[in-house]
Design a protein that fits this description.
Length: 233
């Protein structure tokens, strides 16, 4: 009996084979949040108000039912929360928010592993906002603030890096098919069982990712409730 094999990569996205890219670092202050929006967020009295403002700015109004919007909006909201807790100025808040946003975009631009590339991008873009060398970089953050930002990003975004990757990128699967010449009915039955197990595994992984996202959200909200309402800087 002869065996023939074939394999292929499957994904729901036509650009799934895009590999991590090189990125040009530039100053991002006011790129995503203009001065007026930054001031409004700084004056928002509660975290709920911050979330509502961000949802309106970035058109994430379906976050209650669309889990990607919910995760993204939480990321944006907690970024503003951190900036307010550190008493960042308006331009610092805008720059930090855009740094987080760019880091997330680099992370999710490819389904392939790019943790090192994303972290190196984060270090480079943060450095460009910590050293005065116009027009290439601007000294928005002090050395102390750079340390705090780095520590915060490592313990929040990069700790959940694989979760963001799983939630925002298409899943790449390797399909390996074995075709036996003169196969019996028992072999066909085994193939059906394998397909069924694959479907159950995909469903289980999806449910796990969603439950992890929910648990992270609940833990962070519990921590925020202990601190109380955010005060206006």
């Amino acid at each position: 009996m002869r065996c023939e094999s074939s394999k292929s990569l499957k994904s729901s996205s036509p650009n799934v084979m895009d590999k991590p890219k090189s990125h040009r670092i530039k100053i991002v202050v006011w790129n995503d949040l203009n001065p007026e929006q930054s001031e409004t967020l700084m004056k928002a009295p509660t975290l709920k108000k911050v979330k509502d403002i961000l949802a309106e700015i970035f058109k994430l109004t379906n976050y209650a039912t669309v889990y990607k919007e919910k995760i993204l909006l939480n990321l944006y909201t907690y970024s503003i929360q951190f900036a307010k807790e550190e008493k960042f100025k308006s331009e610092q808040l805008s720059a930090y928010f855009s740094i987080v946003k760019r880091v997330h975009e680099v992370c999710t631009e490819s389904p392939f592993g790019n943790l090192d590339d994303t972290f190196n991008f984060f270090k480079d873009i943060l450095l460009h906002h910590s050293v005065s060398r116009p027009p290439y970089s601007s000294e928005l953050f002090s050395i102390s603030e750079v340390r705090k930002i780095s520590y915060h990003m490592i313990n929040t975004y990069f700790r959940h890096f694989k979760l963001y990757k799983y939630a925002f990128t298409p899943q790449v699967q390797l399909d390996l098919a074995l075709n036996y010449i003169g196969e019996s009915e028992s072999m066909t039955s085994q193939e059906i069982q394998v397909d069924s197990l694959k479907e159950k595994k995909v469903k289980s992984e999806t449910e796990t990712a969603l439950s992890v996202a929910e648990s992270i959200d609940e833990k962070e909200m519990a921590l925020i409730s202990e601190k109380g309402m955010l005060s206006t800087p």
